[in-house]
Amino acid sequence: GATHVAAVPIICDGFRCTLSGHVNDCRNTDDSSSDDEANDDSSGRGDGDGSCILSLVAESNCEHETCDGVDAALVLTCADSPFKAVEAAMALASKAMNGTFRLRSCKSPPPVVDVFGWCTWDAFYHAVTPAGVEAGVGAL
Question: Which end of the chain, N or C, is surrounded by fewer C-beta atoms within 10 Å?
C-alpha cells in the first residue's frame, strides 16, 4: 500500500514554526553566502524563476528575539492512510507541545451538541431557502 506522510510545524521555545514555499523564506544556510546568493540557481534552492523549495521557518514575531536553533520544530509521521498519518502527527504534536491542546478523541462533546444537531448546509447545500430552514427547525 501507499505510505502517507503528515508534517505538522509546532510551537517550541517561544518560536512558532511554519512550512513555507515563499521565495523570501528560502535562505542558504551556508554562512559564507550573501542574501543575494540565496535565490541564485547555484544555491540549489530554486530554479531561477522565483520559486522555492519548501522551507521550515521559525519566528518569534520579535526582531530582537533570535536563536541558533530550537529543540523541536516539526512533527513528521508516516502511516498507511492519510487519516492515520494526521491522527498520529497531531498526537505527537500535542505531546511535543507539553499537552497544550488535546485531541478531539480525548474530549467530550459539549452538551450543546445534543441541542444543535441540524445544519442547513448538510440539509440543503446550495439550495437553502427561508421556507426550508423554517421547516427544518420546526422538525426539531
Answer: N
